[in-house]
Design goal:
Layout lengths: L1 H10 L4 H9 L1 E7 L4 E3 L7 E7 L2 E6 L5 E7 L18 E4 L3 E7 H7 L5 H26 L2 H18 L3 E2 L2 E3 L4 H8 L3 H13 L3 E4 L2 E4 L2 H8 L21
Antiparallel strand pairs: 1-7, 2-6, 3-7, 4-5, 4-6, 8-9, 9-11, 10-11
Length: 245
Amino acid sequence: MYSFINKMNFYACLTQAEKTAIQECVESKHLFAKGQTLAKAGERSDRIDIVTDGWAGRFKSAHDGTDQVISFILQGDHCEEISSVQSRLDHSIKALSDVRITRIDRQKLLTRIEPDSGLAQGLAWSSIVDKSIMGEWLLNVTRRPAAMRLAHLLCELFTRSFIIGKTEGNSMHFPLTQVALSEALGLSPVHLNRSLQLLRHEKLVTLCQKTLTITDWKQLAEFADFDNDYLHLNGKIPVSLRLAS
């Protein structure tokens, strides 16, 4: 639960009692292999699944049977809305790498959330950020050229990983395949590969053995027209993300 607590702490300040309360709501832990389905569209559940290791994705299927990734779920992210309203999922959730989840009892957690508490504020900010990301993704796939789309997404994923302490210098573990990236960006795998080669040629990034290294953060962010305001960092991370350009 470290990543989830770390994420909540980034947007608010949790007390030790709140951290303990979260741990007390843990119901079970589960492992999913890459490609397995964590949840299907139409399901309704009393649980809250939090990804504690690995990456997952939310998918919608088009009329022709192809998949569109509508968001990536990183460590520390919750798969379902943490709300008293239980709606049915309008999308499926699949493991994009081997995934470990911690399952929390929804009702038990809701009873632990006090109004104006650090946990309540952290969850509220998390919801705001999720909605902002959806808006930015819409702009990305409809208005930005292919290579810019990819660069923007890489900047976002690196920043989100930085928030939960999952980067090392200017590198991070990056389990996504080019197919998953193409499904998220609305590009063919061939077009995605050409965009990645362009970023490599410009010496902005390297991607090798599931490790993404940003070789020039400043230039990559400028190329992508990346403005991290939509992630609501509130000035907590310098623009450079402490990377040497």
